[in-house]
Design a protein that fits this description.
- This protein has 429 residues and is α+β, with helices and mostly antiparallel strands.
- Helices cover 40% and strands 16% of the residues.
- The chain contains 16 helices and 14 strands.
- The strands form 4 sheets. A 5-stranded antiparallel beta sheet has the order 2-1-9-8-7. A 5-stranded mixed beta sheet has the order 10-11-12-13-14.
- The radius of gyration is 25 Å and the shape is elongated.
- It starts with a helix and ends with a helix.
- It binds 6-diazenyl-5-OXO-L-norleucine (DON).
- The site of 6-diazenyl-5-OXO-L-norleucine has 14 residues, from helix 8.
């Protein structure tokens, strides 16, 4: 059988092919020569599978879609509170290139509009003559899974007409948000916007954000979970500028657009999406891109506010074995967040007080949230107070060293069958 996902994406693409609305961006002269007919979609799952169709090998400049990743890099290096001291997180309701500051704090309102993005660019560390833009290019290449390059022509073209961004730079220098030469910073920011990508690169990048900062293909944690969450939150509220409310209600996922015609979208925990079509609407967002995202959201049930219910079961199997059936095994499965942990504790509550050994097997738990760890071990303590001997089996090492600290006698890094063989041998029927 061939998966129908590419056929479905093709169907969406052909449906919006006739949409001729919008204009090419021309305030960056080089962008006005783009082919307006280009059209592509890519979808990357969080386990590293990618589907793409249309002009999916066409490179275009990343433009404002670089902003969330530059923000991620700044957060990674300075921490959330240090970055918040320089750039706010409030939606501005203004155009992307508004010359404005938050009236009270005299800071850029958020990192998705140009004033915030120029500031964020200044927070990317420069090391051993590696410029900020180059640092970001390397970071984006890692996220995309291939070596990306700059479009020097688009860069030069934007430099020639960068009066507005330079005004923003001087404004930021005047209030002390920028601490260095604003011309260098603005030029660096414009260079960052000229990194070339395809929809496949963008979907791969977006899927790392969808996966809480973990890159499935390499197994590498590229961003901490709290950084990915911060970036997505800001994309959700500010990513589509003065169309953010429209976007949130009609598409309902964190997103970011760029004036070369790309849009990325992230459905946390599920997929990274990217579309490309160069003609823009009055907000500077790809006109056909928006139509495609709306369609995908509707068909695929992506809207975050639909509130996907959590798994209906956390206990995959419960059985008793050994002498007098005194070993009770709970094989757990799925994700252990608040809802599932509450469900587990409610089930464990029915375990009558005894000297039984209770085994909680985490082998098939795919993700455990901090609240899940807390609730699990609180349950363990209460079972022990009832007289039980409790063992948590963590063969896959889903618990961190930190989470296992002081629990060496409870957490056993062993496979269930191996562990049962050992205890049943010691204490046969
Ligand atoms: O700073 C600029 O004006 C461009 N380099 C990027 C703007 C952009 O992509 C706005 N997004 N839709």
């Amino acid at each position: 059988m061939k998966t129908p996902v590419p056929d479905y994406l093709n169907h969406v693409l052909s449906q919006c092919n006739s949409n001729d609305q919008g204009q090419l961006a021309d305030y960056i002269p080089e962008l006005a020569s783009a082919d307006p007919n280009k059209l592509a979609i890519a979808l990357a799952t969080i386990d590293g599978t990618i589907y793409s169709i249309g002009d999916d090998d066409t490179e275009f400049t990343i433009q404002s879609m670089s902003k969330p990743f530059a923000y991620a890099l700044a957060l990674k290096h300075h921490g959330i509170s240090a970055v918040l001291a320089k750039v706010g997180v409030e939606p501005s309701g203004e155009a992307f290139n508004q010359i404005s500051l938050d009236a009270k704090h005299k800071l850029p309102k958020n990192p998705m509009i140009n004033s915030g993005a120029i500031t964020t660019h200044s927070l990317i560390p420069v090391k051993k003559k590696v410029s900020r833009a180059e640092h970001l290019r390397r970071f984006l290449s890692e996220l995309a899974g291939r070596e990306l390059s700059f479009d020097e022509q688009v860069y030069q073209s934007e430099l020639d007409t960068a009066f507005r961004n330079l005004s923003i730079g001087y404004m930021l220098r005047t209030v002390g948000v920028l601490e260095e030469d604003p011309i260098d910073i603005v030029h660096g920011y414009i260079h960052q916007c000229a990194i070339k990508v395809t929809v496949k690169d963008l979907a791969n990048m977006a899927s790392v954000l969808a996966n809480g900062g973990l890159q499935a293909k390499t197994g590498k944690r590229i961003l901490e979970r709290d950084v990915a969450r911060q970036v997505l939150s800001v994309m959700m509220t500010c990513g589509m500028y003065d169309a953010a409310g429209d976007w949130l209600t009609s598409v309902g996922i964190p997103a970011k657009s760029g004036v070369a015609g790309g849009i990325i979208g992230v459905l946390p925990g599920q997929v990274g999406l990217a579309v490309f079509s160069p003609k823009l609407d009055e907000h500077g967002n790809s006109a056909r891109g928006i139509e495609i995202m709306e369609q995908l959201s509707q068909d695929m049930g992506l809207h975050l506010m639909e509130g996907t219910p959590s798994a209906q079961t956390i206990v995959q199997n419960r059985y008793q074995i050994g002498k007098r059936n005194a070993i009770v095994v709970y094989e757990l499965r799925g994700v252990l967040q608040f809802t599932e942990s509450e469900m587990l504790l409610r089930i464990l509550q029915d375990e009558p007080a005894s000297k039984n050994t209770i085994i909680l097997d985490l082998t098939n738990i795919s993700l455990i949230h901090n609240v899940g760890v807390k609730m699990l071990f609180e349950g363990v303590n209460r079972l022990k107070e009832d007289g039980h001997n409790v063992v948590v089996l963590d063969a896959e090492g889903i618990l961190t060293e930190e989470q296992c600290k002081g629990r060496k006698r409870i957490v056993v890094k062993q496979d269930l069958q191996e562990y049962l063989k050992k205890v049943l041998k010691k204490d046969p029927k």
